[in-house]
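OP here, attaching both records as promised.
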Amino acid sequence: MALRIAVWAPVAREPILNALRALDEVEIAEASDEAQFLRALEGARVAVLPGLAKFYSPEVGAKIASSPDMAWVHLISAGHDGVDAAGWPPGVRFTHPGGALSGAVAEHAFALLAALSRQLDKAVLGQTRQAWGKPYAQQATTLSGATLAVVGFGSIGRRVAKLASGGYDMTVIGVSRSGRPVDGYEVHPVSALLDVLPRADAVICALPFADETRHLLGAQAFAHCKPGAYFVNVGRGGVVDQAALIEALKSGALAGAGLDVTDPEPLPEGDPLWTAPNVLITPHYAAAGDREAAVRIAEGLVENIRRFRAGEPLLNPLTPG
């Protein structure tokens, strides 16, 4: 009997579909919107879609939870806030794309940090005005030899750490929800965050959004940061209390912030974050541009389909929390 797979792939679509078509005894039910996907889920054993709320909606979550056939959901995004919001259906396994997207996101995080430390945001403003003056030059700093706290030490956080320690000779301190050791790095649980922050010249956040991470980086956290530290977020906007971040930027407690994610998204016109001092915002595209990422996503899915059929443990399992 063919394995029915419901697919909603706004990213990596062609590599995923081509890889699935090459498999024997697979029935592909493809969708391009929520209504189609809800129909595709009828009789499906496997679902493939992003875990973001705009795709994994409460309606999609309810359909998956009520389906007697559904056994496994493979997320093709690093984030899974939609699943958190809709609820994790009992008896259904979840997997994620592992490190397929980590390289591009890590590079983007470091690009934001480097731009802030070298005052490139101010230089770009000067260029738009055709002004050669450089009153901000004395504020430029170097990352070499500095200490970086990476909050969220999963695949993205570890790639950030590799760039920092290998390319810039930075001391890296990891913070993760589990606090599990990682070879070559000092790692602490989230409960020790306030002890780590005063040691860091820069903080990069790569945490997913969950109930326990909501506004984790707020007024108390920013008050514990080293004066003049830089802050970068490539995790989820809801992990940060934006009002507290704006205040920390206005007061000078933070020297600058680089944000690829905000809360909400899109960031509304007129939001005070747009005009906060020393902030550099990119519209949530950190994962873009990796030419091989889509292929890696498809290859990981196919390997997990093989494992699923063979009754073997799936790669990159995902559980609540």
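Record two, same layout:
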Amino acid sequence: MSELRQNIATKEWVIIAPERSNRPEDFAVREEKTSRPTNDVANCPFCPGNEHLTPAERGAIYDAEGQWLVRAVANKYPALSPEGELSYQENGTRRWISGVGVHDVIVENRDHHASIPRMELPQVERLLRLYRRCYNSVSQDSRVELVTLFKNHGAAAGASLAHPHSQLIGTPVVPADIRQRTNLALRYYDDHRTCVYCTMLAEELRTRERLVYETEHFACFVLYAALSPFHLWLLPKRHASAFSDVTDAELCDLSKALRVVLGKIDCGLGDPDYNFVVRSRPGHSFDSPYLHWYMSIVPRVSTSAGFELGSGMFINTLLPERAADFLRGVELTPPLFASEHLDEPGSAEQGATLR
């Protein structure tokens, strides 16, 4: 029988209707991905040797021979302009702000075909270190109120270039959805004197019904009120409100957790298109006792339709407990995870130079 579940952090309701679908493995992508971006290496602006095709470099990690390993560049077609000052205007019911902000692209590695599950662990750690550096840099821009780090994998997720890359956008406003989440977290803290995300994490670690993967510093689980099949949250166990607060040891641990979780999605669901986003504290405020940063991972294995558009409520046809059980059982197979070795935290920086 169907049931309605609510995410206590966001207050979003979802209809869990498992009788409308079959088994978890039925969500696996089986057809050829003809819609995937297929730009060739020779003309790819993110491949080595084509650096002249990209705008200004924002930062990079180089090896001992001077070759970049991961780099951030300005987006050639930015949603917001890095030049100019904020200008607020209002005329009757019309209100607008000048479109200034930051829009960068982070090229994840030199290999045109290597997604995160197919990288060596040190390279994933390098990527996350550059994430943190870029996040911190943009956060210091007085014009920026919210920094959003995200990745689109596959055409259905919004990717237009095949070479693995992530994006960072710094906006001059905090969108209504983020303000609502912030206000709800504050209200929960006022009522219970604890962080709602810490409460959810403790419950998932206690029951372990929806837990997919756990490391020393992080836990990943399918949400109790998952909006879609295999909707995951990856949370730090230590309370911290901003991604900038992540330590070197946690960053090393996160590289393993992210690689394993995306690897399970890749192997178990046939490398589906997906999005992930780093949800972090907005604005220039100090550390908060009620906000908790995390990564949201959404495989694009289902389609929203008229009901979702009209009601704002989703229908999830896979019981979250079944989705978690399925992902826990996925074995990571070659060419994924050819090497599991990673030295002590910071090993990704040995022989590498951050610029």
